[in-house]
Design goal:
The chain is of the alpha/beta class. Helix content is about 20%, strand content about 25%.
C-alpha cells in the first residue's frame, strides 16, 4: 500500500467545467456533473448537489442550486478550491468531503488502464460524507459529485474510502477504524518490467507427468423400505469403477505413451498395479532418488471424485503410506503415495472437461488473417 496524492502535473491552477472522461463511462449514471461553464465554483455546486439532490437532467444545471448557495461558508477561501483548501471548508461548514481521482496503471501483462484512487479523505467523523470526483485535463480541473461510491466503483458491498476494498455492512465500521490511521491508500500491482521477483533458478523441473481419468457405472443398492428412500442420506447407488485411461508425458521420449485405456473388472486394482509398475520404470530411467523428485498424477476433479476410488484401493496395500493435504474430512487438495503425487487440475481450470476441450484452439486454423 502507498499513500496517494495527485501527480504533480495535475496540481493545477484553473477550474472550469469538464466532461467526465470516456474511460470512466461505466460510472456516469452514479455521478452528477454540474455544468458550471461560466464560473470556477464547481466545488460549491457539487457540494450543493449532494446536499439538495435533484432528479433528471436538471441535476446538472447550476440554476437548480443557486438558491441554496448562501448555506455554505467560504471565509478566506478563493475559487477555484484546491485540494489543500478542503480541510478549511470542512471546518467552517462541518461537512466531511472525500475526493477521488484516477491514475494510469498497468496490469500484470503490461496493459494500461485507469484506476480510482483517493486524493483527499476527511478527518471529520461525519456520518454522511460527501464524495467528489476530481477530473483533470491539461491545466484544468473540475469537481463532480459521486452519488454512490460503491456503485460508481461497480462494487456490490460497501466500499472503504481509504483502501477502496469492499466489505459487508456489519464489517465496514470495524475495518474503517483500523484502516483510517493509514490514510489514503491504493494497491500497486506489479507488472513484468518492475517489482516481480524471479525465482526460476530455484524451480524444480518436472521430468515426467501422468494424466489419468476413471469411468464408473452406478450399481443399485437394495433399500429395505420406501421410508428410507425419502431420506437424503440413504445410499441408493454405488459408484463402481468400470475403466480408466492414462497417458504419460515426459522429457524423455522413451517414456512417452499413447493413451492407455482399460475397461473391465477390477478397474481400480488394475489401475493401481499399472501405476506402481510405471512408477518403478520412471524412477529407474530418470534416476529419481530424492524425495523431492515427485511424479505428478493429474486427475480432473480428483478431490471430489477420483480420490475416493484411489485411496480406497491403496488402503488394501499395507506397505504403502498415504500423505494427504486435506481440505476437509471428505476432500483432499492433493495426496502422495511413494513418489506419486496426485493433484487436481480442476483447482487450476475450474470447468468441466467438455468445456475445456471446446475452448481449445484448432491448430489447423489461423488466429490471424493476412491481407
Amino acid at each position: 500500500m502507498t499513500e496517494t496524492t495527485p501527480p504533480k502535473r495535475h496540481r493545477l491552477e484553473k477550474s472550469s467545467y469538464l466532461p467526465i472522461p470516456q474511460f470512466l463511462e461505466y460510472g456516469w449514471s452514479h455521478v452528477i456533473n454540474v455544468r458550471n461553464e461560466s464560473d470556477e465554483q464547481c466545488f460549491k455546486w457539487s457540494i450543493l448537489a449532494a446536499l439538495h439532490p435533484v432528479e433528471g437532467k436538471l441535476a446538472e444545471e447550476v440554476s437548480s442550486y443557486e438558491r441554496f448557495q448562501d448555506e455554505l461558508k467560504f471565509s478566506d477561501l478563493e475559487f477555484p478550491i484546491k485540494l489543500q483548501d478542503i480541510p478549511r471548508f470542512e471546518q467552517q461548514n462541518d461537512i466531511s468531503v472525500n475526493v477521488f481521482s484516477y491514475i494510469k496503471a498497468k496490469t500484470a501483462f503490461g496493459r494500461q488502464f485507469y484506476e480510482t484512487s483517493p486524493v483527499h479523505l476527511s478527518q471529520l467523523n461525519n456520518k454522511r460524507p460527501i464524495d467528489l470526483l476530481y477530473v483533470y485535463e491539461e491545466r484544468n480541473f473540475h469537481y463532480c459529485w459521486i452519488k454512490d461510491l460503491s456503485k460508481w466503483l461497480n462494487k456490490k458491498d460497501v466500499c472503504c474510502r481509504y483502501c477502496l476494498n469492499t466489505f459487508q455492512e456489519n464489517d465496514i465500521e470495524e475495518h474503517t477504524r483500523l484502516c483510517k490511521p493509514h490514510g489514503p491508500q491504493r494497491v500497486n500491482i506489479p507488472y513484468p518490467e518492475k517489482n516481480i521477483l524471479n525465482h526460476n533458478a530455484k524451480d524444480t523441473k518436472v521430468q515426467c507427468i501422468i494424466y489419468a481419468d476413471f469411468e464408473c457405472f452406478l450399481e443399485p443398492v437394495e433399500v429395505e423400505n420406501k421410508e428410507m428412500l425419502e431420506n437424503e442420506k440413504t445410499v441408493i447407488n454405488i459408484h463402481k469403477p468400470s475403466g480408466f485411461a492414462y497417458k504419460v508425458v515426459s522429457t524423455k521420449a522413451e517414456l512417452n505413451t499413447d493413451i492407455q485405456v482399460y475397461s473391465g473388472e477390477d478397474a481400480a486394482k488394475k489401475f493401481i498395479d499399472e501405476l506402481l509398475e510405471l512408477e518403478n520404470s520412471i524412477k529407474k530411467k530418470l534416476n529419481l532418488k530424492n524425495k523431492i523428485d515427485m511424479i505428478p498424477v493429474v486427475f480432473h476433479n480428483l478431490s471430489r471424485y477420483d480420490s475416493h476410488i484411489i485411496i480406497q484401493e491403496f488402503q488394501k496395500l499395507k506397505d504403502e503410506d498415504i500423505e494427504c493435504l486435506p481440505l476437509n474430512v471428505q476432500e483432499f487438495i492433493s495426496f502422495s503415495i511413494s513418489s506419486l503425487r496426485f493433484i487436481d487440475s480442476y483447482r487450476f481450470l475450474n470447468k468441466s472437461l467438455p468445456s475445456l476441450v471446446a475452448s481449445l484452439v484448432d491448430s489447423s486454423k489461423s488466429c490471424c488473417q493476412s491481407s
